[in-house]
Amino acid sequence: MTTTDRITLYYAPQSRATGARVLLEELGAPYDLQVLNMKAGEQRKPAYLAINPLGKVPAVHHRGALVTEQVAIFIYLADLFPQAGLTPALDDARRGPYLRWIAYYGSSFEPALIDRFMKREPAPVTQSPYADFDTMLGALESQLARGPYLFGGQITAADILWGIALNWTMMFGLVPRTDVFVRYAERIAARPAFQRISAADDEIAAAHAAAAGV
């Protein structure tokens, strides 16, 4: 890749953007960080809202194009570096299920999680994007129970997405700590890329807290 091909990741530590940065590390991708101090509200200031009007991270800028939405970012980055082996090829039988489980994160898991976090009564099952919380989570657990990864023995970008998500949501008590979820999340958290970014996040978060006088 040339200098102009470097990826810019708009980032905040200990947020959903962590997964995107771990994925970049797993892919061996050349990237630059644009760190936002969320404690100072930088994600809601005009400079960043001009990039992403929703004020969310992660966002990726590459080759003059902006990619937002976590699932889109994972698909885009993994496809950009097929040599890393984290994305099934278009003619791979796993390609459809791979896309299914990445999309499932954004379309079913996240809405269910937010409803639970906010203690909101979910919509009736016929109108809910995720049926009901237990059904949504049970489908995921059944898939992961086949192990060690979503599609057997070979890790994909989808596993980075889900492993980090489960690690965080179990930590905050939003997802039950079943044996299947715990073993899976621990497997992803033990990877060197996750360990490196977790330590780097701690340093950035501490610096932001110090700047805020916390």
Automatic annotation (TrEMBL):
<dbReference type="InterPro" id="IPR040079">
    <property type="entry name" value="Glutathione_S-Trfase"/>
</dbReference>
<dbReference type="Pfam" id="PF02798">
    <property type="entry name" value="GST_N"/>
</dbReference>
<dbReference type="InterPro" id="IPR036282">
    <property type="entry name" value="Glutathione-S-Trfase_C_sf"/>
</dbReference>
<protein>
    <submittedName>
        <fullName>Glutathione S-transferase family protein</fullName>
    </submittedName>
</protein>
<dbReference type="InterPro" id="IPR036249">
    <property type="entry name" value="Thioredoxin-like_sf"/>
</dbReference>
<feature type="domain" description="GST N-terminal">
    <location>
        <begin position="4"/>
        <end position="85"/>
    </location>
</feature>
<dbReference type="InterPro" id="IPR004045">
    <property type="entry name" value="Glutathione_S-Trfase_N"/>
</dbReference>
<dbReference type="Pfam" id="PF13410">
    <property type="entry name" value="GST_C_2"/>
</dbReference>
